[in-house]
Design brief:
The protein contains 14 helices and 16 strands. It is α/β, with parallel strands linked by helices. It has a single domain (5-492), classed as Alkaline Phosphatase, subunit A, CATH 3.40.720.10. The strands form four sheets. Strands 5-4-7-1-9-10-2-11 form an eight-stranded mixed β-sheet, sandwiched between helices. Strands 13-14-15-16 form a four-stranded antiparallel β-sheet, covered by helices on one side. Helix 6 (154-172) packs parallel to helix 9. The model is unreliable at 464-477 and 483-509 (pLDDT under 50).
């Protein structure tokens, strides 16, 4: 297989069902749908952790969360474990990033890129209160959902700017043949909260007719202890009205359509640069978004709306119009990038758990088991998930597990109590224990989190940021990355810090 350039586009919090190629009935993502047609779509693709920073650490390093101890949003990637970006740069490739990374970003951190353009980092100590696990203080995600609608946000402006920069970066490459093959990572921050869509995109989706998420009504919510604790900690025990769910889903669809147009702009720039025939393209996201399914706003769960991801691969030697059912996950990105550009794995890469998606796509569908794990916000104990072509097994440490048939696409029928599935449950648990020790990993995460929080006990608590507007402090773009904020008088006030973005029709205080 000949080496080629690699364009890797990674959005944030994109529920894969909100794409036409994964079955959405509305015209949301024509550019991603076209990319799927000219390449391979992976139908059973999953994150390795349903929360931002651990998922991105796994994507970068090709290793599971527990292997690199990237437990939560207080333990992000910091460059100390080699990533595929390190590996490419070490071997002389140009590997740049543009846009959102969501790594630690402390002074001296080396994330492995040749150059980082307008990177968005975590900065600071991160979500320290979530390290308390069972004792995590309550916070609310309700306001983001209630405030969903048309408008503008610093995230949307940041994404537009980075898309323009990526297009220019691609146009500049043909004059630098010595840099080929190159790799470019474009981090798009949307459709992550806030649930605010540009008005012209919001207008495309009628709240009265948008499809509703699975089990959004209270009577259909799963009532296992882990889900009840999650709702309690995030102030989600009171159900949303149908009107609120519909409006939020319309806004989210609008933001997904906005992301799709950005992808279309970048792919058009790639073609016009003359490099389309010599460039492979990957599109994925870090995790999904629940959008009210099972009463949840955000990600956090092992249900498909949160843990499944869209994953598309196109370009030279990639089967076209192909649907691959072999289970895959974000740790497969590391060997995929290496193979795509022709880099050589080192001895340190011998034990990475992933396989190249290029090889998986070119072979017949196969049985394979992927791992997802969660040790983060609003979890009392570790949650592990295994997915193969037939079943999804969710192992709640210290609680009863769940088992769903892969054919149960909305995951409404837990099979764990049916006698005929007892052997499947036992087999899945055995597979999990072959990968890791559930008890030991749970204890390791809690100990790291305890020590981290104790070391920062004197820091002012940044959570929750506020309760009278959309709770998106953690997504607001710093002024130096958002020129539109430079004219905001608030940014010139001593002690200024990001607060909120509001939709055009926000009626709150």
């Amino acid at each position: 297989m000949a080496p080629t350039n690699l364009l890797f586009i990674c959005s944030d919090q994109h529920n894969r069902q909100m794409t036409g190629c994964y079955g959405h009935p509305l015209d949301v993502t024509p550019n991603l749908d076209a990319l799927a047609v000219r390449g391979t779509r992976f139908t059973n693709a999953y994150t390795n952790c349903p929360i931002c920073m651990p998922a991105r650490a796994a994507l970068a390093t090709g290793r599971y969360v527990h292997q690199i101890r990237a437990w939560d949003n207080a333990h992000p990637y910091n460059g100390s474990t080699d990533s595929w970006h390190h590996r490419l740069r070490q071997q002389g490739y140009r590997v740049d990033s543009i846009g959102k990374l969501h790594f630690r970003g402390d002074k001296g951190d080396d994330n492995g890129f040749s150059q980082e353009h307008f990177p968005l980092y975590r900065r600071g100590s991160g979500d320290v209160p979530a390290c308390a696990r069972a004792d995590m203080p309550k916070r609310t995600l309700r306001i983001d959902f209630d405030a969903a609608g048309p408008g503008d946000s610093s995230y949307l402006r940041y994404d537009r700017r980075n898309t323009d920069h990526a297009c220019q970066w691609l146009r500049d490459r043909p004059t630098e043949a010595a840099e080929q093959p190159w790799a470019l990572f474009l981090g798009i921050g949307s459709p992550h909260t806030p649930f605010i869509a540009p008005p012209e995109y919001y207008a495309r989706f009628d709240p009265d007719t948008v499809p509703l998420p699975p089990a959004w009504r209270e009577q259909d919510w799963p009532q296992n202890p882990a889900m009840k604790f999650l709702r309690n900690r995030l102030n989600l025990e009171e159900p949303f009205t149908e009107q609120v769910v519909r409006k939020a889903n319309a806004a989210y669809l609008g933001t997904c359509a906005f992301v799709d147009d950005l992808v279309g702009e970048v792919l058009a720039a790639l073609e016009s640069s003359g490099q389309g025939r010599n460039t492979r393209v990957i599109y994925t996201t870090d995790h999904g978004e629940s959008m009210g399914a099972r009463g949840i706003v955000g990600k956090f769960t092992m249900f498909d709306e949160s843990a499944a991801v869209p994953l598309l691969l196109a370009g030279p030697d990639v089967p076209e119009k192909h649907v691959c059912e072999t289970p895959v996950s974000l740790v497969d990105i590391f060997p995929t990038v290496m193979q795509s550009v022709g880099a050589t794995p080192t001895a340190a890469d011998a034990d990475v758990p992933g396989e190249s998606l290029l090889d998986i796509a070119r072979h017949a569908d196969a049985e394979r088991t992927i791992l997802c794990e969660n040790h983060a916000l609003a979890t009392r104990h570790a949650v592990y998930m295994l997915r193969d072509r037939r079943h999804k097994y969710v192992h709640y440490h210290n609680d009863e597990p769940q088992l769903f048939a892969a054919a149960d696409t909305e995951e409404l029928h837990d099979l764990v109590q049916t006698p005929e599935h007892a052997p499947v449950v036992a087999e899945m648990e055995s597979r999990l224990r072959a990968i890791l020790d559930p008890e030991a990993v749970d204890l390791a995460a809690k100990e790291d989190q305890r020590l981290y929080a104790e070391a920062r006990a004197d820091e002012p608590v940044a959570w929750p940021p506020r309760t009278d507007g959309p709770m998106i402090t953690y997504t607001t773009i710093p002024p130096h990355l958002d020129p539109a904020l430079a004219d905001d008088p608030a940014t010139r006030v001593a002690g200024w810090k990001p607060t909120r973005d509001l939709p055009d029709d926000w009626q709150g205080n």
